[in-house]
Amino acid sequence: MKTIAEINQKIKKGDVVVVTAEEIIDLVGKKGAQKAAQEVDVVTTGTFGPMCSSGAYFNIGHSKPRIKIGGGICKINDVPAYTGLAAVDLFLGAAALPDDDPRNKVYPGEFRYGGGHVIEEMVAGKDLRLEAVSYGTDCYPRKKLETMINIRDLNEAVLFNIRNSYQNYNVAVNLSDRMIYTYMGALKPNLGNANYSCAGQLSPLMKDPYYKTIGIGSRIFLGGGIGYVAWHGTQHNPGVPRKDCGAPACGAGTLSVIGDLKQMKSEWLRGTSMFGYGVSLAVGIGVPIPILNAEIAAYAAIKDEEIYTQVIDYSQDYPQFESRKLGEVNYAQLRSGTIVVNGREVATGALSSYSKAKEIAETLKGWIRKGEFLLTEPVAALPGAESGYAVRPLRERPMY
Amino acid sequence: MTSKRIVLHFPHRLVDQPIVYKLVKDFNLSFNILKASVTPQEEGLMVLELSGQDADFKKGMDYLQSSGLKIQPLSEDVKRNQAKCTDCGVCVPICPVQALAVDPTNRKVIFYEDKCIACELCIKICPAHAMEIHF
User: Fold this and answer.
1) Which CATH code fits B76-135?
2) Which of A227, A333, B18, B74 is deepest in the core (most CB within 10 A)?
3) Closest-CA residue in chain B for A347?
4) What is the ipTM of this complex?
5) Model's pTM, two decimal places?
6) For B12, phi and psi rounded to 5 degrees?
7) Residues of B in contact with A273 (CB under 8 A)
8) What CA–CA distance (Å, rounded) separates A237 from A212?
9) Minimal Cα–Cα distance from A393 to chain B, Å?
10) A139 an active-site residue?
11) pLDDT mean over A63-91
12) DSSP secondary-structure letter at A248?
């Protein structure tokens, strides 16, 4: 009915019609998917929450004399960076911790600073301490480097997140009789609270549940700047059970995303600390969905009431990799403030910020309306629901 | 007369001691428990309004100090750093007195300072370190 090229022409002319993933719900409800698809060109989505499989790579430039950090040890603000690359290329993971952080030795650990915080400070333009030691070679004789660095001086600073924007996620509860500290937050004993982490009706992959428009090469809002879908994310698992509307009823698809860190904003890349668990990076992502036909409009109008997820015990079942589910709830229930689990009313808490997700969808809408952001045609599709692509557990084998 | 609202933290070795009883018996103070959470083998927390004659009140407070309790005045302020808060809402079910809530109209987190009992749970668990204690 419409092509991405036609939508881009409208964006350039300034007469494109863009609505957020929230606004499309009412529109399709009132006018139907067919009419809505004629009227609307783009639906903008958003999500903002801790996403641990995030990180960034840097090329810091060569020192004089030269040093080969590759194969050596390198720390930025005391947080170790991965050095198994060439001389001055580094990768810093969001969950990396300083060597002298006590972790959970004094349980529960605080995890106040790590890779995610370094990335936030770097994007904010702060000077950072870089220390490297290496072994020295004929061509790279230097063995030690201590210097301040700043993002503006780096050759490349690229955010490269290997798993972000999960299409749905568990609700975490605690059936045990003691407080537990998880990546889903602190969980009070005996079903004291239920934590979830998904933007539901604003979440990118939820509004294009079969990946009909989102694919490799899709241009997106990433960390306050522009990024791209690089690949499907790790643990991409599109074949899970789905509801009639198309939304998966548990964690499913994921995205790997990439973008130039230098044009991102620290407001949308925030170091986070999960008490008793570790550090992470809250990432802001917004994906535009081109409304090419009525089917895509209908999917984009999926609402919280239709999106279900599973309640999982994080005291026993999750750590022991047991598949038991305590129930199924939808995001309207989760957002109401309480859900019912095992016959009891349990207060809910979110790790993913709905108001920030909405702000991202609004920001992206603004960019597209102003003609600052054009849509891209994906260069390849993500593995789909019928592809057979699936996440597998580790098969442990004796070493020999 | 002196009357103050205070927060008592009981280390677990003191959880089985009749401390509040002594405040009444030995120091003639009256109390009103606003909140209490005392479980075996965990640190106990009690928020109470304590009142009595000035001299008795001072002696009672000295007794509490010497017994090894941690005492905080309730006027100790927990503040939210708006610039750091991401409005995720993970603090909401953790707060024991519903001082944190989600505004249903805009999904932003509201902090009712007047309800706060300064238990500091939100300070520990806020992923963005947005909850701060000011002395």
Assistant:
1) 3.30.70.20
2) A227
3) B93
4) 0.94
5) 0.88
6) -65, -20
7) 127, 129
8) 16
9) 29
10) yes
11) 98
12) B
